[in-house]
Amino acid sequence: MNTGLAIFLIILALVAGLVAGFFLARKYMMDYFQKNPPINEDTLRMLMMQMGQKPSEKKIKQMMASMKVQSEKKNKKK
Which is more confidently placed, 47 or 1? Predict the structure, then answer.
């Protein structure tokens, strides 16, 4: 009976560790991407040039501001 209880507790601890690890990793990645967005001005400029557009500073700033507003709205919904 003690062996069965020990196996049950080991499995329970493993599952609890996996669940806690998943949520901690998810929180860490969400904070990381909020602080370091994957798209910056240089990336946006390069994408616009690849699409055949001549990026002006005004247009780049507008798009970055628009992306920031959308990100903040998304974060407020949570």
Answer: 47
